[in-house]
Amino acid sequence: MASLAVIATVLIASSVIKHSLVQTMLREEASHFWGLYAASPAQPPPNTHDLRGYLVLRGQSQLTLPDELRGLAPGTHSVGRELVLVEDKGPGRLYLVWLGTQAERLFFWSGTLPLLLCLAALYGASYLTYRFFKRLVSPVSWLARQVAQWDPREPDTTALAPEHLPKEVQGEARQLAVALRGLSERVAAQVARERDFTRDASHELRTPLTVIRVASDLALAGELPPRAVRSLQRIQRSSREMEAVIDAFLILAREADVEPQSEDFGVAEIVLDEAESARDLLIGKPVDLTVVCNAKPRLHAPPRVMHVVVSNLLRNACSYTDEGRIEVIVETDQFVVRDSGIGMTSDAMLRAFEPFYRVDESRQHSTGLGLSIVHRLCQRFGWKVELASVLGQGTTATVRFAP
Fold first, then answer.
1. Residue ranges per structural domain of the chain
2. Count of C-beta atoms within a 10 Å radius of residue 302
3. Dist. CA 384–CA 377, nearest whole Å
4. Domain covering 263-400, topology
5. How many CA atoms lie within 13 A of 326 on its CB side?
6. What's the pLDDT at 144?
7. pLDDT value, residue 209
C-alpha cells in the first residue's frame, strides 16, 4: 500500500510537472515564432517530430485547420492526449500542438523506469531480509509454540528434549530450549509439592480438630460447673472457626479451576451464629451488637467460606470499636457490617486489603490479615467487598453477592 501510494504520488507529480513544462515550452516556442515572423512573414509555423504549428492569418478561413482545432479560443487546451496552445497576435492566430510522444518516452526512461527499478530493488531487499530474519527467528517461534501448548499443572517437555529438537534449533536457541525444559520440570515439581501439601494439610489439620471437638462434646455431656461449661463451649466455637479457616485457606491454595465442595445455605443463619460468637469479644466493652435480617438470601458455595468472611468482618469491627454499637444488616443481595469505631483515613482505606496492614499498630491482637483474607475469598467466589469509612466515626463493610 505504501508503494502504491508512492507510485501514485510520483506519477501525479510528474504529470503536473510535465504539463507545466509543456505549457512553458509552447509559450516560448510561440514567442520565438512571432519573433521570426516579424523578421520574415514567409516564416512557416513550427513542424517537428513532437510539435505541429498552424497559422491562420486575419480574414482567412479555419478550414485549413484539423477538425479538432477549429473553434478553440485563445489559451491552453487538452485535446485527447495532445496539448494545444492558441495565441492571437496582430497578423493572425497561431495554433501549436504538442504531440508529446518523445517527451513521454523521456519521462518514462528518466522518471518512471528508475522509480520502478528502485521499488523492485526495495522489494528484493525486503524479501531477502525477511527470509534471513525468519530463519533466525523461526527456532524461537517454534519454542514459543511449544511452551504455549503446555498445561501449567503438568507441562509436557518431551518436545524440548535434546534428541527431539529440530535441526534448525541450534546455538542460543538450543540453550534456551534446555533452560525452558529445566524450568518446566522445576515448576512441575513445585506444583506437585503444593498439591501434596494441600492434600496432606487437609487431612492432618482436621484430625486434631476432630479430636478436640469430640473430647469437648464428651466433657459437656457430664456434670460440670457453669464456668467449665462456658470454657468448653468456647473451645468448641474456636475449633469450628479454625476448621472453617483451614477450609478457606485450602480453597485459596487450590487452582482456580478446581471447584470446592459447595451447597445451598442461608446467609442470615451464618450471620446470626457468627454474631453470637463475636459477643464474647465485646465482654467488658460498652458496645452493643445487633443483627437486622431484612431478607434471608441463600447462596450456593462452601458455607465455611461465608463463616470466615462474616467472622473476620465482625472481629475487625469488635477490635476497633471501643464504645458505641456494631450493626449487621442482611439484605437480599448483600450484608453490611457497620461500626462506630476509630474509622480510617482515605490513605488507610487504599491499603486496607493489603496483607499484614493494620490501621492501629498499638492493637496487638490484630494481625492485619482479616480483610486480606475476606477480599481474596470474595474474589474467588465472585462476590464484591466494599469499604466506606470516616476517621473517628466508624467503618462500613459491604459484601455484595449479586454479580
1. 2-99, 106-196, 263-400
2. 23
3. 10
4. Heat Shock Protein 90 (3.30.565)
5. 27
6. 82
7. 78
